[in-house]
Amino acid sequence: MPLKLASIQGRAHFVIGSSNDFRVVDVEHSSKGSLPSDVMACFSVWQSLRAHAASLAKTDGVACSIEQLDCPVPQPRQLFAVGLNYKKHAEEMGSPLPTTPLTFAKFQSSINTPCGDVRLVGSTCDYESELVIVIGAGGINIAQSDAWQHIAGIAAGQDISDRTLQYSGVPPQFSLGKSRTGFTPIGPWVADMDDNASRDDLRLTCSVNGEIRQDTKTSDMIFDISQIVSYLSDICQLFPGDAIFTGTTAGVGHGLKPPIYLQRGDIIETTLEGVGMIRNRCV
Asked: Among 65, 145, 149, 154, which one has the highest count of C-beta atoms within 10 angstroms of its own C-beta?
């Protein structure tokens, strides 16, 4: 089976199936102790996880739902985000196209579960659907041609943004505006893309209360996954379990005319082709 890694009550689990119908297998128990129970420790032994996942049968494990899942990468040593990485999003925000990946840090305390509630603050909170890279084999000065060898997998993510806080200073406060508690849902799991020929051309959508607001292909990124990993590794060492948000496309509430921001009771669904869906309620 293709490797998908989830976390349940702090323990690493293999995932068999899709977001709507899947089963889970405890990693440590299934491997008779040869693989770790801690999900963050799994990214350092990704090749061994991949080999073990290939031996699992479709009927192994127990039925599960995405509401039972924790964040699959709960404690990344480094949590990066790339801004304005889709041409149409840069245009709707009135920003020039970047010539290098515009990178900022998000804070670990903002991480949320695949179905965790998002507590809104103020009246200008916004959604941003994103593909999230999770590093497997760390490294420094990684060549673009080798980048995928250093990636464990990818996940769907929401980069919830407090626009008032984000634009409250000069320069803008991107890190703070996008790092309120619970503003970074990731999931539903980390999916290995080693055998996916379309891994650089995946559909990414975001709906609010069932209305599609964002719909793109990740091939529309200005800087693709390999370029981002190589660029960051030339500046700072990457470590197993590091997470990188790769940017959002057009359709954010702030870019609509007039703007439409998130309201309490809204349901945000973020779906990444080849991975799955996360669903978050605004409270």
From this structure: 154
